[in-house]
Amino acid sequence: MNKEIDETDDLEELKLPLLLKKYKKQLFEFGLLLLILVVLFSLTAVCTTLSRTAKVEGLRQAVQKVLSENGGLEAGDEEPINSPFAVSAASFTVSGTDDHAVIIRIPTIYGAFPAVFLWQETEKNAQFLSLATVNERINDSLIASSKFSQIAYWEKRIPKILKTGGAK
User: Fold this and answer.
1) Please, are residues 96 and 74 in contact by the beta-carbon 8 Å criterion?
2) Terminus-to-terminus CA distance in the chain, angstroms?
3) 48 three-class SS
4) 3-state SS assignment for residue 79
5) pLDDT tens series, the chain, 168 aa
6) Distance CA 105, CA 78 (A)
7) Cα dist. 33→20, 29, 30, 40 in Å?
8) How does DSSP assign 75-113, residue by residue?
């Protein structure tokens, strides 16, 4: 009987190194997979941060172009919009005033275009300035077809968007 126990112990001793070797290989593969995932998530975070900066600067330039054409104003710092509209809108302070320039994607019969509105803090109203990044001939046509529907709608919505977003 003791001999049988000794043989089982020997068998267990032989299986243990094989199991450890198997687990060691699985642990290495799991660690490698985890390392790859961490690297991919890190790259995604870096790319997102860099593209966010470029996006804000591009929007600021588009707003600045429209503001300079409409009274020579200057776009300042970005104001956060803490609402679902933040995906398709951005707000910038207007240097030297309490006003805000808002660029928002509005639908027209020709597709979505970025429109720039000026939120005048003293008068508590939004005024449509122009469509950004559109040539003048097309701009006039788009404005004529959208003036009483989409543009009027967004002029009324912008105060609520900025109020939700925390703009002053």
Assistant:
1) yes
2) 88
3) helix
4) strand
5) 445 545 555 556 666 676 677 788 888 999 999 999 999 999 999 998 888 888 888 888 888 888 888 778 888 888 888 877 778 888 888 887 888 888 988 887 778 888 899 888 777 888 888 888 777 777 777 777 766 778 888 888 888 887 755 444
6) 17
7) 20, 6, 5, 11
8) EEEEEP--SGGGGTEEEEEETTSS-EEEEEEEEETTEEE
Nearest Cα neighbor of 149 from 115, 99, 123 is 115
Angstrom distance (rounded) from CA 37 to CA 33: 6
* Structural tokens at position 55: 């996006």
For the CA atoms of 138, 139, 140, 146, the dihedral, rounded to the nearest 10 degrees, stands at 110
Question: Which residue reads 């701009």 in tokens?
Answer: 139
**pTM over 0.90, yes/no:** no
Q: Which residue has the tokens 């933040």?
A: 86
One-letter amino acid identity for 53?
T
Amino acid found at 28: F
Q: Are 127 and 117 in contact (CB under 8 A)?
A: yes
